[in-house]
Amino acid sequence: MNLVKRCGRGRTGGIPVLLAGTLALASTLLGGPATAAPQGTLHELAAAQGKYFGSATDNPELSDAAYAATLGSEFGQITPGNSMKWDTTEPAEGRFDFTKGDVITDFARQHGQTVRGHTLVWHSQLPGWVAALPSSRVEAAMTDHITREATHYRGAVAAWDVVNEPFNEDGTFRTSPFYSAMGSDYIATALRAAHAADPDAKLYLNDYNIEGLGAKSDAMYALASELIDEGVPLDGVGMQAHLAVQYGFPYEMRENMRRFAALGLDVAVTELDVRMQLPADAARTATQSSYYRQVVEACLAVERCVGITAWDYTDKYSWIPNTFPGEGSAGLYDENLSPKPAYAAVRTALGGEDSGGEPGAIKVRYRSGDSSAGDNQIKPGLQVVNTGTTAVSLSEVTVRYWFTGDNGASTYATWCDWSPLGCATVTHRVAAPGSPSAGADHYLEVGFTGGSLAPGASTGEIQLRLSKTDWSDFDESDDYSHGSGTSYGDTPEVTAYVAGDLAWGVEP
Ligand code: 9MR
Question: Is 77 in the pocket of ligand 1 (CB under 6 A)?
Fold first, then answer.
């Protein structure tokens, strides 16, 4: 059941914003524990934070009942991947066909979703007749196209990608029939025509590789500033966010969003996916989850970021394998429509529980690898086990083994002697808590550079070792986490954390 009622068009991007805090309130009214993370769909979780969470879709996919069910229930916003593009809506000059787009807006209406219209002016998926026009006729053709389409969808489309992908990678304007005919003025002309046709729609410029700071986003920033100065109707900038694990996360995404917001613009993540080289392995999957999480965190951190749209939500209908041979697995759901670790990461980032119930359900098993509790080394053996029903991203997991330094140097050396994951993926260091407690004035902190732990899976034994740099002896017998058992057992005195939150054990 959808607990949240949608209100009318909100200030934020013209996309109806769900009542922030409604979920928290409902949970309190229903007697839920005050600390419990909210349940709900991705969109409900986003809406509780004043954002939407949406997905692209396309007409052929809607006949897939299982696909359509999740599209209709989990997402509060949809974008037609193809059905509102020029080649579909005006395949021949003056012959308009809105049939496919209407199917999308009908679906949205039936499911209480908002629609981002995509896209009015784009160099691609442009019918041949536009490119064949003499320059002198391009402006009229463009304004006519915009006027007819934006008028048709008035009231059904909350925000338009008026101009899509106007820039080259180096920040110069991309050549297109529109640029060739009108220079960069075509952008202001297009925005004015869209505003005249639908004064209530929020009007966006949309592009890829503008998520981080860089030459291309600088160009978009300069263009947006200029349009605003000239009083051109521009409401927002769409960052497509077609990310890839092999290319790194966009540089300073949050800061980049903030500078557009400071111009008085909304920002939307419009086409999010995170592709990888196939086959997907644990490390790539974990990196993907972390990219999805970081996008959500960036959007949550910037008030004018109105929402996020996945392009599309499932690998079953992703555009990636056709365009990037050998790459894929870019979506939140797999080809069988099952949520992937990235889905859990997004839920968690939105403030929800993962679908396993417990946020990052893990436990630690420990044994002492030490024959003597009074020598100059401590040798814990640790295993982290996923006790939940969804994968846990190991890069978010840390484990603390608590001990006392006793007398002698207070600097330490640490080693990973063996791990089936490879010691290169295991990080280790000694740190001191803010205030020492009995048996615990230091802890050995163990982490992971990447990887993913499937439900029920264990990291296997990680053999660790630490000493003081002056090699003086320890007295381990009073250490909080120390045990003398030489076979593995669940050990709450060795604590574990997911994304910094205590997930296992009892701290000293
Ligand atoms: O998802 C769309 C895919 O089905 C089409 O084949 C493709 C053709 O260019 O366009 C895809 O969507 C694009 C979007 O309109 C603009 N940004 C890039 C997207 C991926 O190509």
Answer: no
Q: How far, in Å, from the CA of 122 to the mean position of ligand 1?
A: 11
Same domain? For 134 and 170 the reply is: yes
Task: Look up residue 313 and give its DSSP letter.
Answer: S
**CA-to-CA dists, residue 451 to 23, 290, 496, angstroms:** 33, 11, 16
Least confident of 8-17, 36-45, 316-325, 347-356: 8-17
Tokens of 159: 């925000």
pLDDT of res. 331: 98
The alpha carbon of 290 is separated from its chain's Cα centroid by a whole number of angstroms, namely 8
Same domain, 455 and 371: yes
Instruction: Please give the pLDDT value at position 4.
Output: 31
pLDDT tens per residue across span 257-310: 999 999 999 999 999 999 999 999 888 999 999 999 999 999 999 999 999 999
| β-strands 392-393, 452-453 pairing | antiparallel
Number of domains in the chain: 2
**Exposed / middle / buried, residue 266 (Cβ in 10 Å: 0-12, 13-18, 19+):** buried
408 confidence band (pLDDT: 50, 70, 90): confident
What's the CA gap between 198 and 151, in Å, rounded?
6
- Cα dist. 288→190, 245, 285, 298, 474 in Å? 36, 6, 5, 15, 42
Q: Taking a C-beta distance cutoff of 8 angstroms, is the pair 168, 214 a contact?
A: no
Give the ligand 1 atom nearest the CA of 311: 1
8-state DSSP, 248:
-
Is 345 domain-assigned?
yes
Active site includes 165? yes
340 and 413: one domain? no
Q: Which one-letter DSSP state was computed for residue 167?
A: B
Do 93 and 156 belong together in one domain? yes
**Statement to judge: residues 125 and 202 lie in one domain:** yes
φ, ψ of residue 14 to 5 degrees: the values are 70, 0
Pocket lining: 81 vs ligand 1, CB cutoff 6 Å: yes
Supply the mean pLDDT for the chain: 90
Pocket test for ligand 1, best of 59, 82, 174 (most atoms within 8 A of CB): 82
Ligand 1 atom 21, closest CA: 319
Render pLDDT for 421-432 as a digit per residue (tens, 0 to 9): 999 999 999 999
Whole-number pLDDT of residue 388: 79
Q: Please name the helix (run of DSSP H) or strand (run of DSSP E) that holds residue 156, with its range, or none.
A: none
Is the pLDDT assigned to residue 149 strictly greater than 70? yes
Domain span at 305 = 23-349
Between strands 159-164 and 114-121, the pairing is: parallel
pLDDT at residue number 26: 34
Q: Please report how the helices 65-74 and 99-110 are oriented relative to each other, as an axis angle in degrees rounded to 10.
A: 60
The owner of tokens 């557009």 is 260
Is the Cβ–Cβ distance between 169 and 176 less than 8 Å?
no
